[in-house]
Design brief:
- The protein is an alpha+beta fold.
- 21% of the residues lie in helices and 33% in strands.
- The chain has ten helices and 26 strands.
- The strands form three sheets. The chain has an eight-stranded mixed barrel with strand order 8-9-10-11-13-14-15-26.
- A hairpin with a 4-residue loop joins strand 22 and strand 23.
- The longest helix has 15 residues.
């Protein structure tokens, strides 16, 4: 890629036009690219013009003999995800890929420093954001050296990360620009994100819907409940930015509300993680900022995890600061007997609780032996039996210390295992429940004498939650992978 320029000369810009590249333009484009990249090939440019024609645009200067003179071009291909090694080799165009990877951006040497690069990139992004694409692009990415930091940052790109050096070449960086807000119009951007996931298709899927800044939650509450029922996921989060006066370069403040398919809930960990992952993906220059969510009762602070392996543009590992909500032990024999009976009817086995407590969120926490925990199983569970006691409002956490020595090659040992049942909230069993770890984390940290613990939720999908405990808060860390994005009309 040739160095883009920042200065503007009216005489040049008034005489140029941008248009789609034609097959007959390839030789001119090749000469331009070879002036700075001797390894450029005609085959690569022909492939992009043939297979990804909408994303190959030339900038031409009208000549005296009515022949177009190409003074620059930008070409890209669609991909599903970005890997470091892809920057050094030819990769296939994916017609339905959501990421547009710019492969070449070239300005003729004699016209550099004349504002041409900025003009070309502006035209290119306006075209990509337009209505002509049958399948819209959600992100634009490009790989460049440190020399181009200022150009791409002023063009609205974010620096994602340095790339792994290959064959001792100069350090390069991945830049990304989200197009979601630009395309929004009357629709509302929506996503499905796998939270606390080791890979796509695991963890707990949550819906995320982005709303405009002037949203009134009282007016929209019925609509949000309808949307959550339509998504039919355990939780859907609705997020909208707070006033710009509350934000700074280091903190971005957003409102957040959580709905199950049947009710609104005050707190949801996996939907918070999903929402933070979406915002870190689409908000320019947000990677170094904290995101502060204002929920019904709490402020929840997010930040990207250090040294995280984010090889995909749709994956983020995030640390979330949640309030600690340790359980308070239930000691009354009558209530403990009711809970034991309720669980026996639900799970068709005798669990013999070691501890029974109630958290501030309204969850019962029941610790059992590991053998009893394994006897619960997944078939013929009577969820309606869990509705019989009025002493809790949200869900039942069944948990056990993990003293079996079992480990997962990717995630390592877990300190405890759990399952979460929430028929009162319209969720028979939740795959991975971040907010439940506001109680589980402090409970097992105290029991095991540790400052940090790892929980494994043993649902059918499963997922891991890292918990670091302080006096009044729990830092929950997990990985979120965006599975889908779209527009809600």
């Amino acid at each position: 890629m040739c160095e883009p320029d920042n200065d503007t000369e009216e005489s040049l810009l008034s005489r140029i036009k941008c248009r789609p590249a034609q097959p007959t333009d390839i030789l001119q484009c090749l000469r331009l690219e070879k002036s700075w990249n001797p390894s450029a090939t005609k085959n690569d440019l022909q492939y992009r013009q043939h297979h990804a024609a909408p994303f190959f645009r030339c900038t031409v200067l009208e000549g005296d003999d009515d022949e177009d003179i190409i003074v620059g071009f930008i070409c890209g291909i669609r991909i599903d995800e970005f890997r470091d090694q892809d920057s050094q080799k030819a990769i296939a165009h994916r017609p339905l890929g959501t990421i547009l990877m710019i492969r070449s951006m070239v300005v003729a040497e004699e016209h550099r420093r004349e504002g041409l690069g900025t003009h070309m990139l502006t035209d290119y992004l306006e075209f990509v954001c337009g209505d002509s694409l049958k399948h819209p692009v959600s992100e634009v990415a490009i790989v460049a050296k440190q020399d181009y930091f200022n150009f791409f940052l002023t063009s609205g790109f974010s620096i994602m990360r340095p790339l792994t050096l290959i064959n001792g070449k100069d350090q390069q960086y991945l830049f990304q620009k989200s197009l979601e807000f630009k395309r929004k119009k009357n629709g509302r951007e929506c996503y499905i994100v796998d939270s606390f996931a080791a890979k796509a298709g695991t963890g707990n899927p949550a819906g995320v819907v982005l709303l405009p800044e002037d949203s009134d939650e009282k007016v929209l509450s019925n609509w949000m409940q309808t949307v959550a029922a339509e998504f039919n996921l355990s939780e859907t989060a609705f997020c909208w930015p707070r006033a710009a006066s509350e934000c700074s370069s280091s903190e971005l403040h957003w409102n957040i509300r959580f709905y199950t398919p049947t009710v609104e809930v005050a707190l949801c960990g996996h939907a918070t993680l999903a929402s933070a992952a979406v915002l870190y993906q689409i908000l320019p220059n947000s990677s170094q900022s904290r995101i502060v969510f204002h929920a019904l009762e709490d402020q929840l602070t997010m930040k990207l995890a250090k040294n995280a392996d984010n090889n995909s543009l749709r994956q983020r590992k995030i640390c979330m600061e949640f309030p600690a909500k340790p359980p308070i032990e239930i000691t009354a024999n009558k209530e403990k007997a009711i809970i034991s009976k309720m669980m026996k009817e639900a799970f068709s086995c005798k669990l013999e609780p070691l501890y029974v407590g109630l958290s501030e969120i309204g969850d019962i926490l029941v610790e059992v032996t590991r053998e009893s925990f394994g006897n619960i199983g997944f078939e013929n569970l009577n969820y309606s039996a869990l509705l019989e006691w009025d002493g809790y409002s949200r869900g039942i956490i069944v948990c056990s210390a993990n003293n079996t020595g079992t480990s997962d090659k990717k995630e390592g040992n877990s300190d405890f295992v759990s399952r979460f049942f929430g028929p009162k909230a319209g969720i028979n069993e939740d795959p991975v429940t971040g907010s439940a770890h506001c109680a589980l984390g402090p409970y097992f940290a105290s029991k095991l004498g540790k400052d940090s613990v790892v929980g494994k939720q043993m649902s059918a999908r499963g997922g891991f939650v890292e918990c670091v405990i302080s006096d009044e808060s729990v830092q929950l860390t997990g990985t979120a992978i965006t599975a889908m994005s779209g527009v809600l009309w």
